[in-house]
Amino acid sequence: MYCVKCGVELQQGAKKCPLCGLRVYHPELAEQAEAPLYPRGSGEETLAHSGLLFILSFLFAIPLILCLMVDLKLNGEIVWSGIVGGALLTGYVALCLPHWFQRANPVVFFPLAAAAALCYCLYLCLHFGGHWFLSFAFPVGGALALIVETVIVLLRYAVGAQKHRILYIVGGALIALGALCLLIEFLLRVSFSIAMRWWSLYPLAALGLLGLMLIVIALSPPLRRSLHKKFFF
User: Fold this and answer.
1) Long-range contact list for 21-27, CB < 8 A, 24+ apart?
2) Contact 68/78 with Cβ under 8 angstroms?
3) Has this prediction a pTM greater than 0.85?
4) Mean pLDDT value across residues 181-196
5) Domain count, the chain
6) 219 near 179, Cβ under 8 Å?
7) N or C end of the chain: smaller count of CB under 10 Å?
8) How far apart are CA 232 and CA 134, in angstroms?
């Protein structure tokens, strides 16, 4: 066997030419891929991801600390820095906390974000001496969180290979959001003595009809096939 570039005779099983360094190809032997020195995409990507989260954490912490220091310096107590700090902590829980985990499950982390938002509303209510948390913020926020969490759970665990179930889920969610608008108007009347003008009937009708339309489409396989052929969905 000879080198195809310089013609030097090669030893049996040689991997490259000793003279010109050309790699030798043996068509009768299957090439064995050499194992990499380290798993591809493991250490460097994890380090870069953790470093970015560390920087984002500092970006959240710096204004929080500065506001707290300025507030204590000017007022001698926490007056307005709690509002800023609560907003920053809520945003951090919702946006950054899930990314600290490799496989963040939205079924788990969305309730944490919703709980953080409700706690922030409770702080605002107590800070300004209001009485609207239990009568308005808690039922509205809890109902909205329940709707979104139900949609997340169903989309994650109940769809599977039957993609048309998404239409049931989205349709039911739209109907529930329309009913939530009616609840919001009623609680506004109870909590803040705002007269009922029945504006909630408009989003209730629109979202309800749209949700019913999606459910009808999900119930009719011929209609789904026709829409898929015409609109590719």
Assistant:
1) none
2) yes
3) no
4) 93
5) 1
6) no
7) C
8) 46
Distance CA 141, CA 187 (A): 12
If you average pLDDT over every residue of the chain, what do you get? 86
CA 170, CA 215: separation in Å to the nearest integer? 9
- Give the length of the chain: 233
Q: How many CB atoms lie within 10 A of CB 117?
A: 20
Sign of the CA dihedral running 67, 70, 73, 74: negative
With a CB cutoff of 8 Å and minimum separation 6, the contacts of 114 are: 141, 144, 145, 148, 149
Domain ranges, residue 175 = 130-233
Q: In sequence order, what E strands does 64-153 have?
A: none
Question: What pLDDT does 45 receive?
Answer: 60
> What does the pLDDT average to over 96-119?
91
Mean pLDDT value of segment 2-11 = 74
Please say whether the dihedral angle defined by the alpha carbons of residues 218, 223, 225 and 229, taken in this order, is positive or negative: negative
Q: Indicate whether 150 belongs to any domain.
A: yes
Residue 23 has phi, psi (to 5 degrees) of -70, 135
| Most confident by average pLDDT, 35-49, 54-68, 219-233 | 54-68
104-108, 186-190, 223-227 — which is least confidently predicted?
223-227
DSSP 3-state assignment of 9? strand
Question: Tell me, what's the pLDDT at 162?
Answer: 86
- Residue 103 within any structural domain of the chain: no
Residue 91 lies in a domain: no
pLDDT digits (tens, 9 = 90+) for 8-27: 777 777 777 777 777 876 65
The rounded distance, in Å, linking the Cα atoms of 40 and 33 is 14
